[in-house]
């Protein structure tokens, strides 16, 4: 399919002045409005393939009309080729958007990664053109997802717009009522272990007062003593900070500009332990590379010299890069970064 579309947009296709003028006249006749001309493909950059197909679709009718008016024009794809191109374009568009969202640098992204991936999971219909492609991609995705999903779920729980209920909803959609149980148990255990670990650091502030003192004490030797201990422990567990957070209403906000860090800053006194967790978890980005890097297959992203950097130097460079971005710099020359650590010898 791409072998038909790519030549369509090569310079030689409209190389002759007469054909170029004819093509421009056809665009005017058909009333096609576009700010830019059809874009060329870059072999080692797959997002350019998406841009190429998208721009080609805009001028589809013009190319078909050019084939009718110019008998020497032989590059035009068939209707079936255009249908396949459209299917691939929709697939690439989804991934391009998701990659840009989770590669953002001016806002927290760890709480957005799960939404982008889970919403993409069931979006693709069994289109014959891309079915095998999607199946292979899904297998690779599931392989890595199963060893990293816990780190992607915790930030969602810390998002007051979704919390644990959203994870439960999505996992039941994906794995069914019973198939989701093992995953949900792991998620619940992970967040509670994390909460307990932070509780010891924050202190007793994460626990709320229980009403055990109001109950009549039951002696250890009494046959009901184990029941009394069980109910008191249950009430204490249900009244900890994390469970209160889950019981509280979801924060209603459809605004994409919602600042989750500001929310936790304002609610730190109400949820001190969870605020400490959010402070650390949400500071970690979903992706550590710019959005341009996943789109490129041209060469290695990390060279041999950079993989030998000491941990302290990597941390220093990350901080330095963050400071530059805060100051308004959108790009940091990799060569300059490497030079900060001396020669590669």
From TrEMBL:
Signal peptide: none annotated. Transmembrane segments: none annotated. Pfam families: Dimer_Tnp_hAT, hAT-like_RNase-H. SUPFAM superfamilies: Ribonuclease H-like (SSF53098). Residues 241-324 form the HAT C-terminal dimerisation domain. Residues 103-198 form the hAT-like transposase RNase-H fold domain. GO terms for molecular function: DNA binding; protein dimerization activity. It comes from the Eukaryota. This is Putative transposase. The lineage of its organism: Eukaryota, Viridiplantae, Streptophyta, Embryophyta, Tracheophyta.
């Amino acid at each position: 399919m791409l072998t038909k579309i790519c030549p369509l947009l090569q310079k030689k296709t409209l190389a002759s002045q007469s054909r170029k003028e004819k093509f421009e006249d056809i665009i005017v006749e058909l009333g096609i409005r576009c700010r830019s001309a059809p874009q060329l493909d870059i072999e080692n950059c797959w997002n350019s393939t998406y841009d190429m197909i998208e721009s080609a679709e805009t001028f589809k009718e013009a190319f078909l009309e050019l084939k009718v008016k110019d008998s020497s024009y032989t590059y035009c794809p068939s209707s079936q080729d255009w249908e396949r191109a459209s299917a691939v374009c929709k697939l690439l568009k989804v991934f391009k958007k998701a990659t840009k969202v989770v590669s953002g640098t001016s806002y927290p992204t760890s709480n957005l990664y799960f939404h982008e991936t889970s919403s993409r999971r069931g979006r693709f219909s069994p289109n014959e053109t891309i079915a095998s492609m999607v199946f292979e991609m899904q297998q690779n995705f599931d392989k890595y997802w199963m060893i990293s999903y816990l780190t992607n779920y915790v930030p969602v729980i810390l998002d007051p717009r979704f919390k644990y209920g959203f994870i439960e909803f999505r996992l039941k959609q994906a794995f069914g009522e019973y198939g989701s149980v093992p995953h949900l148990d792991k998620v619940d255990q992970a967040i509670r272990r994390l909460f307990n670990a932070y509780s010891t650091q924050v202190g007793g502030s994460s626990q709320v007062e229980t009403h055990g003192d109001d109950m009549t004490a039951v002696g250890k030797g009494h046959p009901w003593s184990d029941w009394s201990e069980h109910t008191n422990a249950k009430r204490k567990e249900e009244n900890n900070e994390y469970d209160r957070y889950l019981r509280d209403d979801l924060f209603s906000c459809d605004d994409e500009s919602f600042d989750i860090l500001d929310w936790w800053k304002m609610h730190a006194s109400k949820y001190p332990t969870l605020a400490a967790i959010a402070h650390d978890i949400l500071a970690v980005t979903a992706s550590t590379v710019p959005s341009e890097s996943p789109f490129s297959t041209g060469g290695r992203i990390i060279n041999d010299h950079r993989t030998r950097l000491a941990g302290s130097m990597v941390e220093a460079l990350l901080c330095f890069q963050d400071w530059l971005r805060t100051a308004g710099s959108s790009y940091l020359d990799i060569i300059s970064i490497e030079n900060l650590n001396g020669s590669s010898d």
